[in-house]
Automatic annotation (TrEMBL):
This is DUF3139 domain-containing protein. Keywords: Membrane, Transmembrane, Transmembrane helix. It comes from Priestia flexa. The lineage of its organism: Bacteria, Bacillati, Bacillota, Bacilli, Bacillales. The chain crosses the membrane at residues 16-38.
Length: 133
């Protein structure tokens, strides 16, 4: 080998390593920018409580709470103001006019109107965890 060939190989290897470092650094910064953009434009949804093995959840969006079916992404109950769960058989979520009874084992729910004259409902609602805005 001539002396020129020996000097050429280390210079070429150095340029390849430098180029690889620049590409990796650029990819890193591009991924960070994408992450910041995605997190900056994400919605203001916060999960507050989960029911029936995370099938249903109360989500805070801006200044209101909603009960969602997480599998279908449908709103079950708007303007939720309280909930109660004994973590065994049934969970209860309410707003001003109606409440939802979730069967924790069957992962099914029923929507019922609030009856102001029903003393059993009143006793149940006293156990609820209130949600403040």
């Amino acid at each position: 080998m001539s002396q020129h060939e020996e000097e050429y190989k280390p210079k070429k290897l150095g340029k390849i390593i430098l180029l690889a470092a620049i590409v990796i650094t650029a990819l890193f910064f591009i991924s960070q920018i994408i992450f910041l953009l995605i997190s900056g434009f994400s919605s203001n949804k916060d999960d507050v409580a989960f029911f029936a093995g995370n099938h249903y959840s109360i989500i805070r969006e801006d200044d209101t709470y909603r009960l969602y079916d997480k599998k279908t992404q449908n709103v079950i109950l708007d303007n939720v103001n309280g909930y109660y769960s004994n973590n065994a058989v049934y969970s209860y979520i309410k707003n001003e006019e109606e409440y939802v009874v979730i069967n924790e084992q069957e992962e099914e729910y029923i929507i019922r109107e609030i009856d102001p004259s029903n003393s059993q409902e009143k006793e149940l609602f006293e156990k609820f965890t209130p949600l403040s805005k």
